[in-house]
Design brief:
alpha+beta; elongated
Length: 79
């Protein structure tokens, strides 16, 4: 069981609005990325940074912007 939350830092109010409009697509991308990982990958600190990069890249591609300033783990529970 994995419960994880992310925070996304965006540069402009317009990007915040666009992010909210693409909520379902972004959530789907996050689920797809995370569900492709093994338990070992999810618990390894180096792999977590790789996952963060993958998420940032995917969300940037979905939003068609390079202004995504940051992706942050705000909650992470793995049982």
């Amino acid at each position: 069981f994995l419960s994880v939350s992310f925070g996304f830092e965006l540069e402009t109010e317009a990007e915040v609005i666009d992010f909210r409009l693409r909520d379902a697509v972004i959530r789907d991308a996050l689920i797809t990325i995370l569900s492709s990982k093994t338990v070992a990958q999810l618990t390894d600190a180096r792999q977590k940074e790789i996952i963060r990069y993958q998420i940032k890249k995917r969300v940037t591609d979905l939003m068609k912007t390079d202004q995504l300033a940051g992706v942050y783990y705000t909650d992470f529970v793995l049982q």
